[in-house]
Amino acid sequence: MIVLVLVISAAVLGLRAWDSLGGPPLEPWHTYVPADMHADEIDRSDWAGYLRHEEDVFRDVRREVVDRIDPQAALPGNRYWAGSPIYPGRFDHDFNRSYLLEPDGPPAGAVVLLHGLTDSPYSLRHVGRLYRDRGFVVVAIRLPAHGTVPAALTDVAWEDWDAATRLAVREARRRVSTDRPLHIVGYSNGGALAMKYAVDALDAGALPRPDRLILISPMIGITSFARFVGLAALPALLPAFAKAAWLGLVPEFNPFKYNSFPVNGARQSHRLTIALQDRLAQAGREGRLAALPPVLTFQSVVDFTVSTPAVISGLYAHLPSNGSELVLFDLNRAAALSVLLRDAAEAVLSRILPPPPRHYRTVIISNAAADRYDVSERVTEAGDTTEQVRALDLAFPRDIFSLSHVALPFPVSDSLYGLQPDESEDFGVHLGAIAPRGERGVLIVNLDTLLRVSSNPFFPYQISRIEQAIARDTRRR
């Protein structure tokens, strides 16, 4: 039996090595690894030191990648060509970098924003503006290995992101007194980091405790494939098979997000989710979860990137009765494509939600009727079994059959990702408004990338719920 397993494993690795010989070549942004900070350095640093090092990293990327661009790569669709309309260095604000927002008057509180994997601080900028407008200091950190070149993700560990989270919270708490509320907002991978920080802070006196967590498409669990994904990179130990270290080599046409994805990125996310589950289980055994802050989560019922069931079974099943709330965005059951929905998608709500009563408030944003595009808010209060329904002045766009993992943080007016982009901002491309029709093989990108909805028609509802949480905690404090 062992011999058979070894033979199969060798065959799989051989196929992986052979497959890596094809496809596009490695470019400088796939091979140059900037010297970002690691966990031990971050724990010894402060915010000012982190920003100084970040400036050095971006300067090095400019010198080693941007200034050495091959003439054949000097294309409008390449974010690393300084002449491109999507080159981040040409914008008034490069959202790939860490930044602070401060209110006009004395701060009413502080918030830390944690972006997702392959992402940048751009992804939570709309949430950050809300907090700033409500009197909060906003600390938006660029997590290590992000915002620069995709190759940076080949030399990072989740512990580096964990340390950066602690640094950002230290800075946020330093800027406001302890009688002011402290929130953490985490998107995707940042949601897992936010949740782990909150559990770590339960240790007496260890870390400043947040008063509330806001999670958007949190990466509480990912597919079991990620457990073994590290094996896919083994052929890359031989230089001839260097491309085996990558799950995807894609043109870099997004100014604020990597498109290419190394194996190590998936491996570190999986390690983070395992560490989070272990910490939740340990805190549960020790009876300390009762001290967790309230958690407000926004999640699409269908999510190709993270596991929606894991958000419920791996997180909400462990939360105490502390005012936490789960908001689920349902499928568009009136969409013209509804006849093409998989059976599993059609019944997704009944499969993932346990029957009431639940110890957390549950909200489902769903069609008011199966043949209507307008939506209602269906609320089941914590500990209750009855559902209250309230019509919302919002509707599904007719050509959208569901939200997606990447859609939730962005309004439809977002200049980069919105369905109806704000023309007053210019980041060189309106990715969310592209509706491609034509022949295969013409575009530099796979059509799947452009077909995935990238903005949230229910963002006004989402932002109003965050605003309510801000007001509630500000009054309570």
Structural descriptors:
31% helix; disordered N terminus; single chain; globular; 2 domains; alpha/beta; 477 residues; Rossmann fold; 10-stranded mixed sheet
Characterise the protein shown here.
With 477 residues, the chain is of the alpha/beta class. It folds into two domains: 1-293, Rossmann fold (3-Layer(aba) Sandwich), CATH 3.40.50; 295-409 and 456-477, no CATH class. Helix content is 31%, strand content 13%. It has 13 helices and twelve strands. It has a ten-stranded mixed sheet, with helices on both faces. A two-stranded antiparallel sheet has the order 6-7. Helix 6 (158-175) packs across helix 7 (189-200) and helix 7 packs parallel to helix 8 (263-285). The longest helix is centred in the middle third of the chain and has 23 residues, at 263-285. The radius of gyration is 22 Å and the shape is globular.
Biggest sheet strand order reads 1-3-2-4-5-8-9-10-11-12
Give the SSE string. HHHHEEHEHEHEEEHEHEHHEEEHH
What's the total helix number?
13
CATH architecture group name of the largest domain: 3-Layer(aba) Sandwich
Q: What's the shape? A: globular
| Helix share, percent | 25-40%
Can you count the beta strands?
Answer: 12
Mean pLDDT: 89
Helix- and strand-based class?
Answer: alpha/beta
Q: In percent, how much strand structure appears in the residues? A: 5-15%
Distance between the termini: 63 Å
Give the biggest beta sheet.
Answer: 10 strands, mixed
Question: How many domains?
Answer: 2
CATH names the topology of the largest domain as: Rossmann fold
